[in-house]
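Bit of a strange request maybe. I'm writing a small parser for structure token strings and I need a real example to test against, not something I typed by hand. Could someone generate the tokens for this chain?
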Amino acid sequence: MFRKLAAEFFGTFWLVFGGCGAALYAAGFPTVGIGFIGVAFAFGLTVLTMAYAVGPISGGHFNPAVSLGLAVAGRFQWAHLIGYWIAQIVGGLVAAVLLYLIASGKTGFAIGAGPGAFATNGYDALSPGGYSLVAAFVAEVVLTAAFLMVILGSTSKAAAAGFAPLAIGLCLTLIHLISIPIDNTSVNPARSLAMAVFAGAGPLSQLWLFIVAPLIGGALGAVLWRYLLAPGEADENIGQVP
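Reply from user aminoacidic:
Good idea to test on real output. This should exercise your parser:
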């Protein structure tokens, strides 16, 4: 179990450090900024690389909503859920601390208070595109549900072996391409919490949505997969490492 928790810690650390780091340092660089398309691929690549590197150890969740969804789908033991959540949250927070230390080394550094400040998520005035609370909530639920369905489908026994990390990484890239303008993309409570801690009262006051909506979406995607798309599969896959 220690190795599994360590893998979840490192995988979530890399997701936050790589994805949010790209958003902080490279997205708007004055000469050749990568933009939100580059940030979307950065998040996808973090999951893809860690799924291959440490996925065989822990299952490669790196996301509390994914862990919940896999438990609902019968692919993960409920008894391990809290331990995974703690490892994921701590991994994200450590990444955010290092991102802050690096960012604060730039002359004139300031987090600011606008949309996407310190790669945080937000709605209404804190939405990059001015989207409402309802829009952000719906987007997070739907996209997290779709993410779980891709994870469960690509790791099922019927799927081609060895390609799951690629499908999952590309799915996360697509999710970011859709939702960065809406709320700066969460689908991961650990990622949202880690960055909001450093961004002040505004993002912290809206953090609840980026915890609740992805968890609902993760559970919903798992239910749709287990009882609609692959009825009966969950029982034979109990204990399988996705």
